[in-house]
Automatic annotation (TrEMBL):
Pfam families: Acetyltransf_1 (PF00583). The keyword Flavoprotein does not apply. Keywords: Acyltransferase, Transferase. This is GNAT family N-acetyltransferase. CDD domains: NAT_SF (cd04301). Coiled coil: none annotated. Residues 5-145 form the N-acetyltransferase domain. InterPro entries: Acyl_CoA_acyltransferase, Bact_Acetyltransf, GNAT_dom. It comes from the Bacteria. GO terms for molecular function: acyltransferase activity, transferring groups other than amino-acyl groups.
Length: 151
């Protein structure tokens, strides 16, 4: 790299560096997929307490024509009331209304893979040892009821 170009390893988040990577990747993806495929549009289904304060729910976004569930949490005191099922069903209904093909997510072995299986999700991958002594499960569900296609 005689032109002065160099590679660094950095611990601190640099917004300009992140933007350079994200913007470059999004431009590359957009040039190769239908318009709107990588909008990143958010989708939240929020569980609120009696005073209206958020206490849990789903945080997701459009990703490659699917809904990617980034975060899903229900506090212990609200569990066992069917709220997880209702929240996930609302997220799926909204994704369907937005024309998305399905929902995908990742969850750890100690979290909720059984819950998602009961909700019709299929394990499409497992990363053993992530975190150490556990596994990360990748699950997906088509919203049209069709089985997942195998590449």
């Amino acid at each position: 790299m005689s032109d002065g170009t160099h590679i660094t390893v950095e611990d601190a988040a640099d917004p300009a560096a992140r933007a350079a990577v994200l913007d470059g990747l999004m431009a590359y993806n957009a040039a190769r997929t239908p318009p709107g495929t990588f909008t990143g549009q958010p989708l939240l289904v929020v569980l609120r307490d009696a005073e209206g304060a958020p206490v849990g729910g789903v945080v997701g976004r459009h990703r490659a024509g699917w809904l990617y569930l980034e975060l899903f949490h229900i506090p212990e005191s609200y569990r066992g009331q069917g709220l997880g099922q209702k929240i996930l069903e609302r997220a799926e209904a909204e994704a369907r209304a937005r024309g998305l093909a399905g929902v995908w997510l990742e969850t750890y072995a100690f979290q909720a893979p059984g819950f998602y299986a009961r909700m019709g999700y299929t394990t499409v991958g497992v990363l053993p040892g992530c975190p150490p002594g556990q596994a990360c499960h990748f699950l997906a569900k088509r919203l049209d009821g069709a089985p997942l296609e195998t590449p």
